[in-house]
Write a structure and sequence with these properties.
With about 270 residues, the chain is an all-alpha fold. The chain has twelve helices and two strands.
């Protein structure tokens, strides 16, 4: 096995110096970031089966031996790419939900959806274009049934899904567990279109505004969820929706333009 020209080598032993451990840890973290960035691009372009550890090492500018030092095999690296993004996304959303339900004012469906539909740029602090490979990887595992993809979804994404399903039923107690599950899955299906870094919408005639799809998602999905509420509850909700106009919750992607939405007036979180 040959080292890549100009690649990083194994961390030198600098234990004797007082700052050795810190500098070594920083170097290791920097190397892991390089590897994860490169792996995200290669996996996003070629999929799991089409990517190779050798290609990822070359893209990261590290020796393949060092790649294996940090990540035992391709499966471990593939899952680590997801875990880096998913853990950050889950933490941000969880904090927002906790803050939402700690308040004294009633929480509306639109408030929960505003958290669910936060843009990836806001969640991850990255530019839209830099996330296109992660979006492709996420689309792959979301629609795949192989054991590896199923395990990634179960371990890294299902806990957040369960939290939002619980939140949906908390703001709409009349929504059954089954319908809440489908409401969530339909919602994230629509969200995936907003996340997708393609130009299809503009080709079809939509303006190229990054926040536009996220702004539309909240009233669109809220109306859809209320439409699947049992018939005995539909009439009161429809009457309530027709008489209410409010601003989108603070933190909504468009900054809170007035929109007509179904539901009672909710707090500005």
């Amino acid at each position: 096995m040959h080292a890549v020209a100009g690649a990083h080598s194994f961390p030198a032993a600098s234990w004797a110096r007082g700052d050795g451990l810190t500098s070594q840890a920083e170097a290791a973290n920097g190397t892991r970031t390089l590897i994860l960035d490169a792996a995200e691009r290669i996996f996003g372009e070629h999929g799991f089966d089409g990517a190779s550890m050798r290609e990822i090492a070359q893209a990261a500018g590290v020796a393949q031996a060092l790649l294996h030092y940090h990540f035992r095999n391709k499966e471990t690296l593939y899952e680590a790419v997801f875990e880096r993004r998913a853990s950050t996304i889950r933490a941000v959303r969880e904090r927002r939900l906790e803050k939402l339900f700690r308040g004294e004012d009633p929480v509306a469906l639109e408030d929960v959806l505003a958290v669910l539909f936060m843009s990836l740029e806001e969640l991850l602090g990255a530019r839209r274009g830099d996330l296109r490979y992660y979006v492709q990887m996420l689309a792959d595992v979301t629609t795949s049934t192989d054991p590896r993809s199923t395990q990634i979804m179960k371990r890294l994404y299902d806990p957040s899904a369960e939290r939002f399903i619980e939140a949906l039923r908390r703001v709409l107690p009349e929504l059954s567990q089954e319908r809440a599950v489908w409401a969530y899955l339909f919602a994230i299906g629509a969200r995936m279109q907003a996340h997708a870094p393609t130009d299809r919408a503009s080709r079809l005639g939509a303006a190229r505004r990054a926040t536009a799809p996220y702004r539309l998602l909240i009233p669109f999905v809220a109306a859809g969820i209320r439409a699947i509420v049992p018939a005995s509850q539909a009439a009161p909700l429809a009457a309530e929706a027709s008489g209410n106009r409010r601003r989108l919750p603070r933190g909504a992607p468009d900054g809170g333009h007035d929109v007509v939405v179904a539901g009672a007036a909710a707090k500005v979180a």
